Model the fold of this input.
Amino acid sequence: MVFFTNACKKNGSGNGAATTPLEFKIPDGFPEPVYKFEGNPPTQEGFELGKKLFYDGKLSKDGNFPCASCHQQFAGFATLDHDLSHGFNNQFTTRNAPGLYNLVWHDQLHWDGGIANLEVQPLAPITAPNEMAEDLTNVIEKLKQDADYPRMFNAAFGSDEINSQKMLLALAQFMGMMTSADSKYDRMKRGEATFNQQEQAGYEIFKQKCTSCHAEPLFTDFSYRNTGIPLNQTIKDYGRLRITNRAEDSLKFKVPSLRNVFLSYPYGHDGRFPSIGSMLDHYNAGVQQSTTLDPLLRNGISIDFNERYYLVQFLGTLTDSTFINDKRFAP
Amino acid sequence: MKHSLIMSLTSFKRLFFFLPLFAVIASCQKNVNHDLGGPEHNLTINFKAQVDTIPLEYGKTYHNFFNEPYTVSAFKFYIHGIHFINTETEAIFEVAKDRYDLVDFADSASSSIKIGVLPGKYNRIAFTVGVDSARNVSGAQTGALDPTKGMFWTWNTGYIMAKLEGNSPVASTPNNAFEYHIGGFRTGENVVEKITLLFPYTSLVDLQPNKTSDLYITTNLSAWFHNPHDIRISENPVSMTPGPLAVQIAENYRKMFSVAQILNEP
Done:
């Protein structure tokens, strides 16, 4: 029933086109995803269309800012070595670009959770004046004029009609298929690898001091928390408050996943922490008290010099080389 | 006799087996999910924008309840969940739930909604102004809900249920613009308004088979500014986020509709 209803709603794939279904696999130990591709069953053709869109500057006003300009595969689809991403006309954005992987497990997207469904997420960067800065109608018009897109939309959705819904469904297929679950940590869990003593020691400390927020296996509990990072006076970003208008959400940001954390420096919602060490220093001694500070951080998290070393060794096991080298996601 | 009873039971079971499937297919059809025994569209709801008793013209100066002068450049809203009701026979006809219409007074075609209604007599119309919460969070949409319509917030995702834009010398904004983008579907900031309208005295929708009816609904935008909440352009020239101001404006504009006239083809 659900499948039929949604298939109709989305005018999804099929309609006579011969498409090749793609299987979405839930890795062992992972929960059920939130985004279930309902009405948008992944196909090879939809995925390839989504990939072309993801890497195409046409989605931006001046052609210079495809999605991939801030979401680089070698950085776990975050932006390497940029605190704030850059957008149209030499503008800064106000936040650090999050890595794109395991997105189907997020109930909401963005640091402030303002996006309620993976499918509509791309609308935010496409239309934001300091990001891709383009008008959605113009994007669709450019795709219609393109030599390849009408054929690719036809292959994916059984009609060469191009509209925003089909563009977003294809992007959701491409991004939704980005599963990162083959790090050394994952292989250890599957019994295919063993941690060395330092990694194991770090893992024990991690389970003791970090998993209440960075919960396994996704390394986030998807909650919004004030981790005692002082307000950036030049950006004045109060995080989730902007979405809910509730005072108790002031300075709360989504708990980021720590998968591929070695690849995605700098850290924090505005990228103010240049290294993992400086991030751990914050928890150890930099937590600023405020009314909305997370209760778990009232006293910070004491991390001594040895623990810090072991934690870093453990966090290194979260790098998924298979994912960042996966040719399916490469341009 | 016995044989035929078994046969009919078997057919009966078959019918039940297929029934859910038919229901699903029918619910996919955008416009009509009933056999109306006639043309697909037999009733037109015509929305007419007015400022009190005067037909709205874009760019012309009007005055609100607080005597603030203003002009209008955009006026649009979503309609869905249309029901025709007869409170005497308790007949209710529901237009397909997944139908959404954007009424945009800049586009005369969109302010006349053509629907298929089961012939009969009705003495009420009910509808929702806005987009229900489920559809606000269910991903990429098309048709009236396509985000290219400019009625979708991209940074705090959700639909703008109703939009009124214009200019007023009392608005201390760039270009003296006032902009009311009214949205919000979460608890505490929900602006989805359910409206039930009575018909003028002695009037009915009396829709005969293979005939048409026309319903004229006056949409008085003066309602946005007054009763129960005072919305002065000078104090509140902009509402661009879900929240208390948007809720107040929606509680005002829910009174903007009234049925002016019904024409039934004899």
Notes: The first helix of chain A runs from residue 2 to 10. The radius of gyration of chain A is 21 Å.
